[in-house]
Design goal:
Keywords: Cell cycle, Cell division, Cytoplasm, Lipid-binding, Membrane, Transport
Protein name: Patellin-4
Shape: elongated
Strand order of the largest sheet: 3-4-5-6-7
Family: Belongs to the patellin family.
Oligomer: single chain
Distance between the termini: 62 Å
Subcellular location: Cytoplasm; Membrane
Largest sheet: 5 strands, mixed
GO molecular function: lipid binding
CATH architecture of the largest domain: 3-Layer(aba) Sandwich
Length: 414
């Protein structure tokens, strides 16, 4: 949100917060919480790793002037528009309440100091047990990077106990996850006006409710609380996938830990709604294939410049056809197609323009329950026809794309 879009009262609060920060930094008060404030009375999630500042310690003015968050100096007279972006994150998280916002900034600074966050990128926390549980993959429609959190791989080969079998291992995972967050902010986000300064989190809850994974659930609760308290407005959406009825009961257990604003960013999807839910925020070509999209790892067929994705519909109880006209022989056509909600019958065929040629059935009619990719060498002009029969009562959305590759048939090669 640009400064011009703020209400007059919000602009004034931002101005007052800057004045309060300036005064507090110059008087060496920024890192010291008021012992009578509500902020100080709240319990912290993690035990301090490094306690560099005590409430009685005096820090030089020159050191105070270097206090920063994510590389942006907090002294307003020495900062730029990036500081406005950061301060607005804290203000929105506290509904533009000046004192509560200021206390939140203080708590975040103290937590980062005690937890050693500014040095965390230098630490070697990578573990073979954690790798793959969180990864960045693509962007949503508004340019926010998307972080996927997937834990089902931990069920293999005793990895779960190796990763979460003790309190120390759980704390190490949290520290690794904070490091991952900091790296994502540094590499993918920007505090410049008009740039993406938040990310989307997709959390796959498959196999997460078993009693044998209670340590992981507890650790995820702590992770969400850490992000809420110390990374305000850095999460544009938290999208929980493959949620079951039991997850709703589980959600009620940790809801009291969340602010209303944080909880409003939560989106929940049952297994049959995964693709449909992700499509509200992410284009199909940027959704991983395992979640019903087109994106494949190390895909050498479709690149960003290979053309747009087309969209059409099939009404309930109806049959529709998608056609790809081909005017040139000697090419190979590659295509992807998905039907949101699946539960349709699908057939592929090639129909030549020459009425004397035979139709070619490429794929017999079968139930489509996952993204389909296929290719076909074209001997003569004609059209590819994909027939989709929807026997349900609900209208379904179809996404498809195709590309042409000039190909030399095998029988012509030397």
């Amino acid at each position: 949100m640009a400064l011009e879009e703020l209400k007059p009262s919000e602009k004034k609060t931002l101005h007052d917060l800057k004045l309060k920060l300036e005064e507090s930094i110059k008087r060496n008060h920024l890192l010291f919480l008021d012992p009578n404030s509500q902020a100080q009375k709240r319990s912290t999630i993690l035990k301090p790793r490094i306690a560099s500042y005590s409430t009685n310690e005096v820090i030089s003015t020159s050191e105070n002037s270097k206090i920063s968050l994510w590389g942006v100096p907090l002294l307003p007279s020495k900062s730029n528009d990036c500081l406005d972006t950061i301060l607005l994150k804290f203000l929105r998280a506290r509904e533009f309440k000046l004192c509560e916002t200021f206390e939140m900034i203080q708590r975040t600074l103290r937590w980062r100091n005690e937890y050693g966050v500014d040095e965390i990128l230098k630490e070697n926390l990578d573990s073979e047990y954690f790798m793959g549980t969180a990864y960045m993959d693509g962007f949503d429609r508004e340019g926010h990077p998307v972080c996927y959190n997937v834990y089902r791989s931990l069920r293999k080969g005793g990895l779960y106990d190796k990763a979460f079998g003790s309190r120390e291992k759980q704390e190490r995972f949290l520290r690794w996850r904070v490091q991952f967050m900091e790296r994502g902010i540094q590499e993918l986000l920007s505090f410049k006006l008009g740039k993406a300064s938040a990310m989307v989190q997709v959390i796959d809850l498959t196999d997460l409710l078993g009693s044998s994974m209670k340590e992981l659930r507890s650790t995820i609760e702590k992770m969400i609380k850490i992000f809420q308290d110390n990374y305000p407005e850095f999460i544009f959406k938290n999208i929980f996938l493959n949620i079951s009825l039991r997850h709703y009961a589980y959600r009620a257990l940790f809801s009291p830990l969340l602010t209303q604003r944080t909880e409003s960013k939560f989106v929940f999807a049952r297994s049959y709604k995964v693709t449909e839910t992700l499509l509200r925020y992410i284009d199909p070509e940027n959704i991983p294939i395992q979640y019903g999209g087109f994106k494949r790892e190390n895909d050498d067929e479709f690149l960003a410049e290979d053309g747009r994705v087309s969209e059409t519909f099939v009404k309930g109880g109806k049959i529709t056809q998608v056609e790809i006209p081909i005017v040139e022989a000697g090419v190979t056509v590659v295509w992807d197609i998905i039907v949101v909600g699946w539960e349709v019958l699908y057939r592929e065929e090639f129909i030549p323009d020459d009425e004397g040629s035979y139709k070619i059935l490429i794929k017999v009619e079968k139930k489509l329950d996952k993204p389909a990719r296929n290719s076909f060498y074209i001997h003569e002009p004609g059209r590819l026809v994909f027939t989709i029969e929807n026997r349900t009562s609900k209208k379904k959305t179809i996404f498809y794309r195709s590309k042409f590759k000039h190909t030399i048939p095998c029988y012509k090669r030397n």
